[in-house]
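To assess whether the prediction recovers the assembly geometry, we first specified each molecular entity separately, as shown.
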Amino acid sequence: MTTASPTLEVPYPADPMLPRLATIRGIKPEAYGISTFSMAFVDPDERARYRFQPGQFNMLYLPGVGEVAISVSSDPGEPETLGHTVRYAGNVTRAIGRLKPGDVLGVRGPYGSHWPAISRPGTNVVIVAGGIGLAPLRPVILSVLRHRDDYGRVLLLYGARTPADLLYTGEFDKWREGNIDLHVTVDLADENWRGQVGVVPQLFYRVRMDHKNTIVMTCGPEIMMRFVIYEALARRIPKDRIYISMERNMKCAVGFCGHCQFGPTFICKQGPVLNFAAIEPFFGREDF
Amino acid sequence: MTPSLPRIAASVAVPKAALQQVFENLRGEGFSLIGPTVRDGAVVLEEIDGMDDLPQGWVDEQNPGQYRLKKTRESQYFGCSVGPQSWKRYLHPPRLGLFSVEKSNGGWVFHTPKGPPPHYAFIGVHACDLAAIAVQDRVLIGSEFRDPQYAARREHVFILAANCGHATSSCFCTSMKTGPKVTGGFDLALTELPDIFLVEIGSEAGSEMMRGIQWEAATAFDLSRAGRVTQRAEKLISRQLQTDDLPELLYENLEHAHWDEVASRCLSCANCTMVCPTCFCTTVEDSTNLQGTASDRISVADSCFNRDFSHVHGGNIRPSIKSRYRQWLTHKLASWHDQFGSSGCVGCGRCITWCPVGIEITEEVNSIRAKAVR
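The predicted structure of the complete assembly is given in tokenized form:
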């Protein structure tokens, strides 16, 4: 593809289903089958206007292939370049995996709810992520690093299946330097692994946390989040201080298509970030 | 002398043949007339030319899993209840182009559908379906996001409602408080009497469409006869759904044994969602040309009964029929309230009639209530 800059002929957001064009600026392999795509809107006005909150997502579109909901994984303080960490899982994500720097794709968003902003200086934050669940939480980590003094203790409990599946490992030292208490585990170790082995919720037993003035943010497989909630509640953290990010099939991201419903919740609108107290009657229910 | 136009909220009596003049007036204003007509043994909603296309003299008989049209000796134009289609066929079409994309200069150019939206005049809208249109309004244009194509179609629609004088065994609008008499949201509403139409004027546009028609102010006798028409329909409705304990009843009984029982009968065929006038779910399809230089993206009606509806990497969230039926019923009668401030059910009974195994939404709720966890 050449680098001429195409333009959109139609207004936005009068048509909420219409993507805008963005150019891939860089691709960073993160783990096996997972890369972070950095992109910027082609239209300079759009680039200047676009803002997102940690935890929100965009719909990424490839003509003739389809569209997929992907969380923004980059720094909300630098919204001109948007990072999306993509795992090649289906048709659309595999086609995105074949893109090269300079290629264009459609982007619309940002959509959905976001991780809570801390209401009091000194709030303790416990971030718990499994696998690619760290991607929607990375903007929180980067925001914490920017405004570290506003926060109290910041714990990051992270795990993946194997050491090769861990994301953003090159940034771990910087996060630790920024006074983030990072604990990492893997389900299955290899011969070079010197860290913890076990599932993510077990990391709760390796740390102490104050239940007062603490919020928990977690993203990962639902089964992991269920046990994270269990451990957090066991440490007397109130239900309404626990936030989870959920995933459902999504076609429109604006509440029209019906696919992402979870009881009364549209994951695209009231989610993906949800307060546990609000969804407790439905969370963990089989085939719901 | 040209008669003056009737005022808004007036009820006027017109000879039956005058309806043809209303149709001509609508057509003169650029409307396509969409109304009930008989095709393949059912009353469908299609473009009609005039009164001759209406299902005059037909009456429908509906039961769980059964629909029959019968010829009667009466000559009513609007003697039938609702057929398999609803007005969402036109306001929220099952296939609709979203945009097309062309490769150009290394990037792409997006084209959205151009041209004016269709101007539809809906003829013979029953009260339940009028309520259903209001429900879809809340879903598709009632939040911070607006479906632009629905909005454009909706804005231009002309509604000629028809009060019901007949009901089938599937009807339960009285339980859902949507009918059988229309109470608002129309341009014109007619009640069919043996000799005349009694027409209620609902809007300026409705009044305009009475141009050239010899009308008379409705007499007390006309009004009382019209009242008896809808009273007759009301008396014919035997099906009931107790709504005062919904949605709590369903939320508290998500693990009720009856979900398994209904799942043993449900074929997961999606008929109920296709005929439902409020079900709005869609998916998207992309198709490219052979060179891969252009692509169309369309919206296609979808159903929560389709297996892949809830697909995420690794599988489907609702793999069982039980989970899909529970999703449909609890959405319709419970979570719809949380999402859009009303029930998603208007009591039209289509899901009962068109279910191939005759599952009755009202009976399923009753079965849950009978052994409910409270």
